[in-house]
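Dear colleague,

Thank you for sharing your sequence with our group. We've completed the structure prediction you requested, and as agreed, I am returning the results in plain text so they can be pasted directly into your records. Please verify that the sequence below matches your submission; if there's any discrepancy, let me know and we will rerun it promptly.
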Amino acid sequence: MTPQFVDTNILLYAYDSSAGDKHERAAELVLRLARTGQGALSVQVLQEFYVNAVFKIARPLTHEQALLRLRALSQWYVHSPLASDVLAAAELRQRYQLSLWDAMIIQSASRLGCQTLWTEDLNASQVISGVAIRNPLVAPFVAP
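Please find the predicted structure tokens below.
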């Protein structure tokens, strides 16, 4: 099975019970990816998740709760970017007019061989570097 990359915002919704319908949709996706072993992310996503989950969401997680989730997510496919990935992301940023952070997410997804990137931040249905951008928070949502 091909891994599917999950951006930070989707993980945050999955663990933020105050996010309503977005929480339900994101939690369903994250649970499915965990069960099938298809979940993928990067060190960048792990870092962003911790900071935002502990300090920025409406109902923050405790340090201990966030660590438990990080440990579970660390069992997924995880990309640890190299300097060459930063260079490639800078090229993607320029070519597609993205933020460097979004370009790094796409680069990591591509490096892990993901054909799908689940995010709310980019244009759904766009394909960049062989990675299809999909938003699980908009209807209709049909997971591949």
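Summary note from our side: The domain at 4-134 is CATH 3.40.50.1010 (Rossmann fold).

Kind regards,
the structure core
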